[in-house]
Protein 1
Amino acid sequence: MTAKRLLVGAVGDDEDAIAAAARRWRDTGAEVVYLGAGVQAEAVAAAAIGEDVAAIVVDAMGAEPVRAALARAGAEDIEVRVSS
């Protein structure tokens, strides 16, 4: 079985929270592409497309802007999840 490939990043500036989310996903066996915090929504979407991920995990502040950026790029098939 292939591990799910995820991109983890935050539009906001809470580096500790998004790093913890990345570790949790990695510990479950997911392949994590980590962007860190303070990333523009368009950059998150572009990285997700370029890295061919199945889903994006972002902070609550970034969920809607990232979904909109994915829609503009024609990549609505990439799932967006809010980091817990």
Protein 2
Amino acid sequence: MKTRFILCFLLFPILTFAQKGISLGRGILEIDFRKFPTLEFHSDTLRPAGKKIRITKNKQGDFSIQDEKQNRTWFNPEGLWLDYSIFILRVDEKIGNWYRVYVDNKKGTTLWIKAGKTGNFMSWPEFLQTTTSVTKNKEFNLEIKSGPSDTSKTIRNLEQSDCFEVLEIKGDWLKVQPNETFDCDESEHPIKSGWIKWNIKNRLSVDYGLSC
């Protein structure tokens, strides 16, 4: 997986995702758009689908959303960059084989989608370990700690110039180090490693980066 990221980064930058004002939820639903799925969204698990997203290919042979201009008026999920092999939805709730997902992160709109072969659910700890970078979320003033606890010694505050990679996760804490894979850390106060809190009051307190 990391080899794929390195090769892609030679051509494309890291895409940073910062979602404001919505709850953390349960995790991430990754959509395998290469199977040309039709995603059916329901206002309730007992109601028929009210909205649909169909994946197709355009005249240039690239993956795209059918009637994209019209659908993008209501569909702005966690991450949608098909050219970068990214299509993810934030899962607010999971009940049986149904997911309540954010279909518009900016407005906080949620709908239900049934689990299928084209979707792979990951809890936040699982997903964050697949990210290519972790950076400061401007809404939170985080401290870098020596251990995974609020009472652990503070190394320093997290800076906007920090760019970390995740080493491990314990509860609501990420163990991080300066990002060696993409060499994106520009802090003038480098650290060897430390712990930062990724979940504060059911909010994602860090931004994360993905590549193709």
Protein 3
Amino acid sequence: MIAALLLLALLPSGAVAQDSKYLAWDAATRTVTFELIAGGEGAKSPFNFNGYIDGEANLVVPPGVSVVMNFIQKDGTPHSAELIADKAPMPNMGGEPAIPRAYTSKVVEGLPQEATDVMRFTAPDSGSYRIFCGVPGHGLSGMWIRFTVDPAAQEPRFETPRSG
């Protein structure tokens, strides 16, 4: 416990904490499994992924890995997920994903509460993306987090704001 506190004290201001309760890594198969929860509890807004809004969290993966995103819809309002390019302007609704197969079913309509879906795709060589709710207006209302393919990454990590 003391060692963990000491390590946190040594992190530079603005550093991020690692949140791995949603993340699993199989190094042998180079597979990242991520639990993507739409409408997580305890967030600033019901329009969130895993409790984070407006790009507050970032799923970082190495290039070429297999990505399995298990989508779980917890909110009473329909939601979806799609990986889009991290660029302005942000679209009002879903369309063509930036990475093939990186989207849930019913991207624009959204999935009902307690629905699940699985996105399976291969991470490209590099790039910055957004995991974005494609239901009209939801992404613009803050329902997106970051997805980064980092050539320097040796294993995945889920970066979240340092609590404090």
